[in-house]
Amino acid sequence: MSSTIKYKDYIGSVEYSAEDKVFFGKIEFINDVVTFEGTTVEELEQAFQDSVDDYLEMCREIGKEPDKAFKGTFNIRMQPELHKEAARLSIVQGKNLNQLVVEAVSQYVHHAYQHKQHA
């Protein structure tokens, strides 16, 4: 089972170890590996918040940017038929495939955030 928690615009991945009877996770999208754990949901949430606060304080003290930088490029893997249809659609719309994918992802992300705000 995997899930996420949020605090101060940071996301923590969360998993459960039945063997150890502990929730554990790490802060995602930062420049270092910072983990946290707890035996209850409350302990886990507090450990995550403490880890975020401690990490941000350490970064501030040493003058380090905490957030992972994104280059804006990544590889996409999809079914060949979907790739073909996307390429065809991009030509029909007078765009290149990259423009079509950026537009689609942008619309998806915008819709997801709009849906989240109304939930």
TrEMBL record:
Name assigned to this protein: Type II toxin-antitoxin system HicB family antitoxin
Alphabetical list of Pfam families matching this protein: HicB
InterPro entries reported in the protein's UniProt record: Ribbon_hlx_hlx, TTHA1013/TTHA0281-like, Uncharacterised_HicB
Signal peptide coordinates: none
